[in-house]
Write a structure and sequence with these properties.
- The protein is globular.
- The protein has a five-stranded parallel beta sheet with strand order 5-2-1-9-20.
- Helix 2 packs parallel to helix 13 and helix 7 runs antiparallel to helix 8.
- It contains 17 helices and 29 strands.
- 42% of the residues are buried.
- By secondary structure, the chain is α/β, with parallel strands linked by helices.
- A hairpin with a 5-residue loop joins strand 22 and strand 23.
Length: 546
Amino acid sequence: MRLPQQTLETKKVPHILILGSGYVTITAARGLQKAIRRKEVEVTVISRENFHCFHGFVGEMITGRVSPGSIVSPVRRIIGAAYLYVANIEHIDMEAQQITVSRLNDGSRTDLRYDHLLIALGSADNLEIYPGLKEHGFCLKTYEECFRVKNHILKMFEQAGTTNDPEERKALLTFVIAGGGYAGTEIAGEMSDFARLLTSKEYPHIRREECRVILVCKTATILPELRSGKGAAGYGNGHPTLVNYASGHSLKLGVEVKLDTSVTLATAGTVQLSNGEVISTRTIINAVGTKAQAVIECLNLEKDPKGRIVVNKDMTVKGWSNVWAGGDCAALPHPKGDYCPSVGIFALKGGAHFAKNVLRKIRSKPLKEFSYVGIGQGVSIGRRTAVVELSGVRIRGLLAWILWRVLLVYYFPTWDRRLRLLADWIIWPFVGRDIVQLTAGNEDNRELKTYRFEAGQEILEAIRNTRFEHLLVQGKVEVVSAGIVAHTFAEGDYLLLDAGLPESTSLRAKGEVRTLAVKKEFLPLLHKQSMKKNLRKVGAVSELQG
């Protein structure tokens, strides 16, 4: 099959490039279908994946209510007659009207020309929002991360059932969610209810009281988007009664809500909060903090304080008549002032508006301003309960939950996945939740992993009895024996735990420490002289202890 830019030379029709496969792309591609079939335009969608993840049901996928495959749809079925190019976006040259992309398998680069460009790349997780997130946290932006969270939760329950150490068991069964917005509140509610179901049926040797679900919210209430301001729908001055109801329901489910608090540090075994509290846990799920994609940061365009591309009311990028932007990566003016919120419905409506406007541009007709103000907002808060606002009407409880699911299914991009969702919802009450722990690329068996530790933290238990040895890449680690610092490991040293450390010896981080965990079977291939030096050091510590 020839690429669109090759056919462009013979057909002489405008070529539209769409970057990304998110919500904007769904309605943009569909709105251009008739024009594509009439040979009026050619459309190419560039995406790193050949699937679209519907984030409205991530909470249910993580907790086994729906199967992982039910929330992803094939992009090819969504975009219809448009051409899909699966590749990485390397560079955007708006002067030359050209995009440089690279194939995923070999990195081979190709230049694709365009007449009109739609930037709809969404946003990325801000892994620098607090130290340790990159090494020890889980994010929810990508399907791969959500899939990892699902399997990790089940792994924690499995490991808790095989340990006799009460402190370790407590840490394994403690789940911290950072961010009290829509995503964090939903995950916390679903997680708490999931723990109830798991401990009553699948893991009877674990009591529900042992499981902690902690929601950390930096504002005075959860769901700040719903409580104050015009909200996603643009109606009224917020909905505090819905927020109060959601708060009470979360407490009933057993969620521990920590308000006016934020996560300040994550390590291999702890989470530190802004109030000074330190929580032992093996699970930190981050639902706060995003930033612009790297390729967008490099563009010399006007951006708002959040790094989003500032666009005109007709969705064209300021200063460019043939470059458009929508979704999370664009600061689109709201018809009632300020900017549109970063929620799926506005992205869907934005894609549809782009399709109409770009055709008007090609047909030399005047462009129209984006006029959608919103229809409502809502969130599922666990155990068949939700809070919903539709055109100013407030609904809560089971009715809200049913209504919200109907709306989400209505906007689901493909019929086959809608049927799969319905099948999952019908089946699971009879057969139970999906508790199969799958592995994404065998996460626990990666050749290299990174760990981060805080000053003064005891790190021995976090790294002992694993299939890894640790290379110290930042900071220093003290070997403490009988209360005395017997030795200090420095950057470049291996912490060889199987080389004879006495049982009473501990390893303590001196300042911020980062280690690179290397699988033991690969160790003989790496830095043999360094390892021999470390063996002598460990031997000296053993003699001192003796």
